[in-house]
Amino acid sequence: MKYRGEEKKVELDAVSISRLILLFIIPIVAYGVALFPPALVIYFSTKILNLENLFHLLIFCIVLVLDYLVLIFSAIFSTAFFINTLNLKYEEGEYGKSLKDKTAFKYALYFALYYPAYRLINIFVLPPIKSFYLSMIGCKIGKNVFLAGEEWIADPCVMEIGDNTMVGGRSLITGHLAEDKLIIKKVKIGKNCLIGGESFIMPGVTIEDNVVVGAKSLVTKNKKLEKGKIYAGIPAKEIKVEKKKEKG
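Above: the chain's sequence. Below: its structure in token form.
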């Protein structure tokens, strides 16, 4: 008995091989460039400071923490430069899953550059820096967006997040699915929304303004959540809130 997809073979044509090599080389170069400024900081610090002196050792420890921030910014600018220079931002549609497909290759390379940088930012919860980075690589993100920590915005270039929206910790918002094809659809989240922690927002979802999505909810693909309403559950459904009658 053959299972679906079992008969498929790994494609080893010239295009696929060259793109596979680029998937290794370009991120290595990008992160090598990103490591250069913090490496310089450490190099000159060790030249200036005497690490056998306890006070100098304390200063060096503080320098290392500051150097981590240097690494974050250098990784942001380096990866954003490569993403924009190589035109790696992709659009919604249906594409092949092999590297022979140009969009599948762009998606894989975009991910290889973006994922480590975003994880670096997430070690320290720095929402304004995260919003700044997302906007640099194609996300339409509004003012005062709060990204709580450990959330994953899987496809920034097909995402839109409105002003004053909060995305809870460990939430996943994705614009792609890998089925028979690579399916990419835009996700739009309106203004003044609250996405509860550990929620899963799937491709094609539209969340209108002033919507609350409860924690650990699953918003299935292509679903539209209407303005001013509360949704929760797996899958997410509208929760009716009874208004208390005013005493006369």
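The first helix runs from residue 14 to 48.
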